[in-house]
Protein 1
Amino acid sequence: MLEFKRPSGTSRGIMTEKETWFIVLDENGKKGIGECGILRGLSADDRTDYEEKLKWACENIHLGEKELWESLLEFPSIQFGIEMAFLSLKSEDPFLLFPSGFTSNAESIEINGLVWMGEPDFMKQQIEEKLAEGFKCIKLKIGAIDFQKELELLAFIRSHFSAEQIEIRVDANGAFSLNEALDKLSQLNKFQLHSIEQPIKQGNIQAMADLCKATPFPIALDEELIGVFSWNEKEKLLQKIQPQYIILKPSFIGGFRGTQEWITLAEKYNIGWWITSALESNIGLNAIAQWTFLQNSKMPQGLGTGALYTNNFNCPLEVSKGKLCYNTSQSWDFF
């Protein structure tokens, strides 16, 4: 159980801990590690048979990564854990899955600074900290406190920083009702926001399509992608809704292979995308960051979550001046 340093709020409530499973492969003393990052109440594979399926995957590890991935279609976090573990086992260093300019500390990944929901003063304090830390892009969770207070917070940021100085993304986590969503988007529009994630609850396909057509600024799908497993279903969803962006969380959508399918389809339909971690430990975050760097996206990614926990693993990942870096002088303490 990963323990949060302080309770973290979303529009779905407060989180104090997060359940995490690790798959460790051992072949003649050489180890590989993968993380199955599940978020209860949100992951498509939050099911009563989760642990049983994880046990099945371990008992059938001899089938190999490709066959297991295909057999675990409805368990995207286990798909990701298996995929990561096999990549780790094949690597010379179990934590160096994708060697690059990022892992040699020559280059970094620009990320957004995440501001958690809470009382307005707490949110204001976080915003000031992120700006002082050098972030050029911040992401605010909205939808849990009074909407007027959220508008005031956005006005506070814009009174000090222009859209050229600070990019603002907001994430509603599906908090707006269908009949008020467009009005709220119109009110938010005056703050020159980059985008809004998931303004209404997932599953309202026609309403989301209408909203994406009428919105005054870009909409990004997030939860909408959860539980959409096959290539055909993915393509149908993007064709129907035609969002401006999609947000890709490998733990939620079948690891790198599942993420790559979404990227291929998004680019086919001229839909923008970026990659986000989903509160994994540093093990999962490390794999996602290394893979993300290789995708050559110029947008800020959503990867800065490693420091949220009291009992995370020491690792080379560091955030500096709004960027995720790989400090090669730091070592891992997992094994």
Note: DSSP finds ten helices and 14 strands in the chain.
Protein 2
Amino acid sequence: MRNVFVYGTLRAGEINDIGAAAARHGIDAPRFVGRAAINGRLYDLGDYPGLVPDETASFVRGDVYKIADALVPVLDEIEGVVPGVDSVFKSREVTVAVAGHPVRCFFYPVEDVSVEGRPRIEAGDWVSYRLAREALAALRYGS
């Protein structure tokens, strides 16, 4: 079992919902550990966000799950992480606080070069940003 910090499309209810990904592959459901945040900058990359870790930046919000080891390659595939191949997302380790307790997790950040010219998500929360963006688009286009 491992812990993972998810901040974008792997969050519950999002297009790559971590629980749905596990179910599709017959893997035990992830167990929600709690909400967490890490220092970093969050960017809009279109259909998904990218997180650049940055100790001097504000917080990026996400969720921590305890997952079966069998789910790690599924998440790597979703994020395009292939050993020996350079990709937008990397698999890295981080310690986050959940309810005041340190929890070691892996997560999928990006590097600065991947976010050049992309809008920053100042509030640090992909889900609220995406919902607001969709509501604005609906108002603009009458959908």
Note: DSSP finds three helices and six strands in the chain.
Protein 3
Amino acid sequence: MQYRSLGRTGVQVGTLALGAMNFGKIGRTTREEVTAIVNAALEAGINLIDTADVYSGGESEEMVGKAIAGRRDDIVLATKATMPMGDERNRQGSSRRWLVTALEGSLRRLGVDHVDLYQIHRWDPNTSDEETLSALTDLQRVGKIRYFGSSTFPAYRIVQAQWAAREHHLSRYVAEQPSYSILQRGIEAHVLPVTERYGLGVLAWSPLASGWLSGAIREGSEITTSRSTFMPQRFDTAIPSNRARLDAVEQLAEVADEAGLTMIQLALGFVTAHPGVTSALIGPRTLDHLHSQLAAADITLSADVLDAIDAIVAPGTDLAAHEKNDTPPALLDPSLRRR
């Protein structure tokens, strides 16, 4: 395992990090399986585990907490808040009221007294940067969080938050967690230049593009990934963007074969090759999935391989731009762009 500094914090984390979204009912992963996955990941050198309160309604945090009991100090523990946790309207967002409550719930489920990285899961357009940063700074000062970051923020919101922290003399976000893969390269055009400019760590989620780059999806084969059961529209090859992804996968498979790599090694090696990326978040459901992804831990792609990837999916290109989670609200809600 290679290690890099998480932004300018000085905290060293592996280039592969363990994402816990599939732990619990989402991935149908049992507590025993989670413990085995965590044990194997730590043994392989992974030292950052990332979860969120919303993952399986808190079940993921509970499972992670049980799995790391007794070795908390060896782990960089990250979780997230802001996504809805119930039907009550104020049990979501990034207000001080909710973040304080949400963090207490996460600490209880994880069985710890602090988390190392607390992340705003999605930008909340209803809450000011000053409100959110002030609450996070206070939580940091009382020792319940060590650092805080953002997740899936558009570039201009990352910049605005940095300016707001400076203006109000508050602590700042030290990391961003964007979606990034060979098939979704849009952050290269906007987000990564900003995170590099401000010295933010980058934890890239979905580096296998929801399974498209796992090697299991090929022309003529039935698509049976776990995501295809509850997000079938993302894998319907009658949809032009999905057809484009499948065409790219076929070409990428040839590149991988010629380089003597698996598709997973190609995909993860591509993400960690970018100098602005700290870690690729892998989200295994089984031990076999974990081991196949750990095989990419020390992969360094040659310039020829990276050039071949660029020829298939151009830098800064999203093959499924409509699936991005950082679209400004006014583009999604007509009432916000009408007088």
Note: The chain has a mean pLDDT of 94.
